[in-house]
Every structure is written in structure tokens, then in C-alpha cells.
Amino acid sequence: MLLLTCPCCGVTAEETEFANGGEAHLKRFGPGSTDDEFDAYMFSRKNPRGVHFERWRHAYGCGKWFIAARCTVTLEVFATYPAQTTEPPAEVVATIKARRPEWEGFA
Amino acid sequence: MKRYSVFAIAREALRQHAGWERAWASPSPRARYDVVIVGAGGHGLATAYYLGKNHGITNVAVLDKGWLGGGNTGRNTTIIRSNYLQDPSAAIYEKSRALYETLSQDLNYNIMFSPRGVMMLAQTEHEVRGYLRTERANALQGVDTRFITPREVKRLVPIIRLDGPRYPVLGALWQERAGTARHDAVAWGYARACSAMGMHIIQNCAVTGVESAGGQVTAVHTTQGSIGCGKLGIVVAGHSGALADMAGFRLPVESVALQALVSEPIKPCMDVVVMANTVHGYMSQSDKGEMVIGGGADHFNNYTQRGSWQHVEETVRALVETFPMLSRLKMLRQWGGIVDMTGDRSPIISKTPLSGCFINCGWGTGGFKAIPGSGWAMAELMAKGESPLAEAFSLTRFREGRFIDESVAAGVAH
Hints:
Radius of gyration of chain A: 15 Å
Number of strands of chain B: 18
CATH superfamily of the largest domain in chain B: FAD/NAD(P)-binding domain
Helix content of chain A: 10-25%
Structural class of chain B: alpha/beta
Largest sheet of chain A: 4 strands, antiparallel
CATH class of chain A: Alpha Beta
CATH class of the largest domain in chain B: Alpha Beta
Order of helices and strands of chain A: EEEHEEEH
Helix content of chain B: 25-40%
Strand content of chain B: 15-25%
CATH architecture of the largest domain in chain B: 3-Layer(bba) Sandwich
Oligomer: heterodimer
Shape of chain A: globular
Structural class of chain A: alpha+beta
Number of strands of chain A: 6
Radius of gyration of chain B: 21 Å
Strand order of the largest sheet of chain A: 3-4-5-6
Distance between the termini of chain B: 36 Å
CATH superfamily of chain A: Folate-binding superfamily
Largest sheet of chain B: 8 strands, mixed
Number of domains of chain A: 1
Number of helices of chain A: 2
């Protein structure tokens, strides 16, 4: 059972209060992009064994979307942060680096 | 390889069972094979078996990072059925079910196939309509299914409660020739047959990298050294993403945990498989008497091989409502497996961007039933470069919009 803290309302709750929204920080490719770009944006996922950035919604709380950095092997939640960003904030990257020195970084 | 038979049992009984040989060899890897299969689960071993049996390719190695059949092959709820809605799915799952019928004889290994019948309960009006549609689709596909009334459901499953307060049983889609098999035995039987054909099954050999030259796969790096290969088959279910990453491409697959649990053994009370997709639960009784129960998958990416607690609670709560006699049962064990889910809940059996490298993955929550058919199609694809059974399941179907949408057809519990 995951324990997540919503960065929007500050409530810490079990995973049943949240809804998972899949991989975070996807760059959208719309009309005008190539087939390869659109295919990759639409379907291909990193699905990493280790550090993963994913979207969550506080479905049974404030209803806001946010992003969680989590390890898919140990289920450790490194940090949660608001969704209004295109890449993980520096302090989140530092937190993960401290916990997982072998991590290659966000790419 | 000595054949297993009633005479073999009699012969061994007379000499303290000293003559049984090892079912498969544990060789050291050679420097090069024509074909290397990564993943010695059911699908990987079946691929190797049909490469040898149907296409005469026996210079094959099957690598596994752990022990054979130790992943999802040993973690599923052993249900075999083929009542799918879409034509390509019905074709491959029905091929698979048909192969299961004679698999014990083909492999000379008792896989304990039990065609006890699978019943998918309709507990809402939507489900009734959905299953009536599936029944007609199945009739056109040559899959023998029938929509049955609540009375017939009760006759087949006396322990069921038809008039539950929330989800009464309104009928069921019944496939009489579906059933269960012993999951470990499927892996063991294929392994023994592969070993007998001279193939190498190399356990405790994790793949750490894929080598290529000029866009053509040439070797895999493993914890037991580098192994050259003419063709490479990746058949690793939940870990497909990691292997694809090594081979230099990404997949439309996400790995999540699916879990199952078994109760303490009780006297025989239910001799069919019952699936209740509206309430996310399915159940059968094993030969040992345990009630084998499966439920829904977690929704977040996960490699831990254990599931979230609330899904156990959800599944058991739903089943108790439909089978009130279960309420006093104690649960013995609970476990999880990592399943690779695609967007349309259908598998991928395909060539990849890397020439000579093939992938078989995305079976999601329903891989066990597909083992023989999947191996058959994958072997044909690897040997000939094309396979009618596999054609619709190519990796390119996503960008081309040719989805095989089974998430709607089968609810959640595949």
C-alpha cells in the first residue's frame, strides 16, 4: 500500500484515495509531428525498473493532479510535486540521487 | 529420453525407482546458437519446442535469469479458455486451447489438462448484452460457447447465490471445453521435450545486454558470458521493457502487479471455473481442494511481484457475496506476478526495429491459456518471417490504429 502526500492540499493518504494517471512529463506531439513522434508520444512508455515519474490525481480529495517520483522495485516514494512543470524540480532530482546514486537521471 | 508410460512406472516400481533420469539437462552455454530465446517460462519454452518440432531448428538455447517456469508461469490461476470477441484473439486462443487438449500426449508429460468448463457470469444488463454478442462472434469463429440461463448456472455451480443484493446472476457465457491445467507441468513438459531435441536450457543466466552490428542482432551478453545468436526471441513478460531497452527500442507496454490467492483445502464443491468480471473475481477449485482465487490488477507501474492489499479485500468481498459459503474459509497464500499490459489488452508477437530480434509479450493478465498457441505462432514467425496467427499482433498495429480491443470484450479478468 502506497502512502502519498498531495502537494496541492497537503493531505497524506493511502493509495486508494488517489488515481494513477501513468507516465509523467510526456511531451505532446500533435498535428504536424511525424508518425514516429506521434507513435512514441501516444504509446511508447519508459516502464522503468527503478525510478519512475508518474501522474496521480487526488481523486477522493482535492481532485488536483500532481506528480510522484517513485521506485517501481521497492515502492519507495521519493517525492511528490505539483504538475505545473515539464521536468522534475532540482530538489527532487537531488533527493533521488541521494537515495539512488546509480540512477542515470531524468532523460 | 526415456518415455513415461504405465510400463515405465511398473518397471521402476520393481527397482526402487532408481532408473528415472533427469527430465532436462543443465548444460553450459555454447559460444553461439542459431536461435537464442530469452525467458524460460511457458511462452519461451513453447516457442523453442515448436521451432524444433514444426521447423526443424534445434540449435536453440533458452536462457532464464532464475529457474524455468519461476515467473508468471508459476504464478497464474491456470485458466484456459478461448471465448474472445475479436477474430485474431479467438484464432490464437482457440488454437492454443486445441493444442492443450493433446499436449500431454504430444509432450509425453502429464500436464493435467482438465476441460471442466469455464463460466463467465453476467451480473449486469450490460454484461448480458456483451456476452450474447460474444456468443454470436464465437459461433462465427468456430469457438464453442453458449449463453446459459441462471437455472443452468445453478445446476452447474450449486454453491452459487443467484439473487445477490447488488449483482444478481442474470446468466453466463459457458465454454464447456475450456478448463485448467497444471501450470508448472506445462513448463516442465516443454522443457523436457526441448532438452530431448538437444536444445540447451540455461538457468540462472540473466541477460545484461544485446549486441548488434549494422542493425542486425549478433549476440547477447549474459551473466554467463557472451552468447552469439543468429536470431533472438525476447519472451520475458513483465520485464519486456527492460529487455527492449537493451535492444534499443521502446514498447507500448506497462508492467503492473496482478495477484492471486488460495484458501485452505476443502472437500470438492465446485467442478467448473467461475469468472465474475463485474466484481473483479474469478475462482476454481484445485485438485488439492484449495479455492484458487484471482482478482484485479494494480493500476500503477510495479515490479515487486506483490500486489496491493485492497485488491485482495475487494476480490474476496465480491466473491463472498456470490458464494456465501466462502465466508468462513481461511486464506493460505497470496502472491503476485508482474504482467505486461498493452493499451488494447492484446499481446504483441512481432518483429522489432532490430533485425533478427523478435518479441512476444503483452499477454497481460491472460498469458497462461495462450502458451501453446503463442509458442506455435512465435516459432513460425521466427522461422519463416511471417505467421498468419501472429500477423494481427504486430508491434506496428498501434501506430496504424489496428487495435485488437479486448479490454472491452472481456472486462478486466482475462
